[in-house]
Design goal:
Blueprint (H helix, E strand, L loop, with lengths): L5 E5 L34 H26 L5 H27 L12 H6 L6 E6 L4 E2 L4 E4 L4 E4 L3 E3 L4 E3 L4 H31 L10 H35 L3 H5 L12 H8 L33
Parallel strand pairs: 1-2
Antiparallel strand pairs: 2-3, 4-5, 6-7
Family: Belongs to the DHHC palmitoyltransferase family.
InterPro entries: Palmitoyltrfase_DHHC, PFA4/ZDH16/20/ERF2-like
Protein name: Palmitoyltransferase
Length: 308
């Protein structure tokens, strides 16, 4: 798009538009104008299958913990305390998963590379801005294009099929909470499995469960394997995310060895920018900022997300 005051380049990397020069999508007449008021959902077959599998595995773990280990126990308070703790962790994990999956990760509005918008930026003569040739948008600093979401995402860390969404500027906190609560629930399940095995061996598998001994063994072994795999994966992801936040560097930026052109927010400043505000228990709450939105069916050709 020619202009006498600045140059526009169709490139993928090293954008010069800063985050403070946000495109005002509310003033746009495009279908993306009301993106803040819509539920975000990616229609990707692999991602949707992975998300459903994640939920089924958590539900399976809750079933084994509740009906195989806790309800048959003769210790009332042991069952109540562990049941409440595990189910709370499961609910918080699934809630964090939903918030990660259904929250706009920071998508840049499509087609905002217009003459009117570029003039509104009041660019200096000779200043270069960059346009994504795939979604025809002006790329803010630290934005990257996701081939699955088919959008440019602000501070895109990576695309995770298990949450069927990108992890970016607006939903990273929920992804961190998801990995943390799944890791905690996995540790709790593994501890309960160990105690259950000990109780069953001492009782010669007669009264430790309402299920037959072979079924009980199979259920417990599968839960142990699931707990080990889930804990390993989520613990590594949780540590990686915290490291990235504290260093103000996304996984893509680290892999590409991009030199920072922005003012880094290190350690607590980075944590505050992601979780919002000073340290508090609200950081652990995946329901913060949640509000119900009315679904509205809208016919739309192309694009990976549902318009609601």
């Amino acid at each position: 798009m020619p202009s006498s005051g600045h140059r526009l380049r169709d490139v993928e990397h090293h954008p010069l538009l800063t985050e403070n020069d946000n495109y005002d999508s509310a003033s746009s007449s495009s279908p993306e104008a009301d993106v803040a008021d819509r539920v975000w959902f990616i229609r990707d077959g692999c991602g949707m299958i992975c998300a459903v599998v994640t939920w089924l595995l958590v539900v399976y773990a809750d079933f084994v913990v509740t009906f195989v280990m806790l309800l048959p126990s003769k210790d009332f308070w042991y069952s109540v305390v562990n049941g409440v703790v595990f189910n709370c962790l499961a609910v918080l994990a699934l809630s964090s998963h939903l918030r990660t999956m259904l929250t706009d990760p920071g998508a840049v509005p499509k087609g905002n590379a217009t003459k009117e918008y570029m003039e509104s930026l009041q660019l200096k003569p000779g200043e270069v801005i960059y346009k994504c040739p795939k979604c025809c948008c002006i790329k803010p600093e630290r934005a990257h294009h996701c081939s699955i979401c088919k959008r440019c995402i602000r501070k895109m860390d990576h695309h995770c099929p298990w949450v069927n969404n990108c992890v970016g500027e607006k939903n990273q906190r929920f992804f961190v909470l998801f990995t943390m609560y799944v890791a905690l629930a996995s540790v709790h399940a593994l501890v309960l499995c160990g105690l259950q095995f000990v109780a069953c061996v001492r009782g010669q598998w007669t009264e430790c469960s309402d299920f037959s001994p072979p079924v009980t063994v199979i259920l417990l072994i599968f839960l142990c394997l699931e707990g080990l795999l889930f804990f390993t994966f989520t613990a590594v992801m949780f540590g990686t995310q915290i490291h990235s936040i504290c260093n103000d560097e996304t996984e893509i930026e680290r892999l590409k060895s991009e030199k920072p052109t922005w003012e880094r927010r290190l350690r607590w400043e980075g944590m505050k920018s992601v979780f919002g505000g000073p340290p508090s228990l609200l950081w652990m709450n995946p329901f913060v900022g949640f509000r119900f939105r009315r679904l509205q069916t809208r016919s739309r050709k192309g694009g990976p997300e549902f318009s609601v």
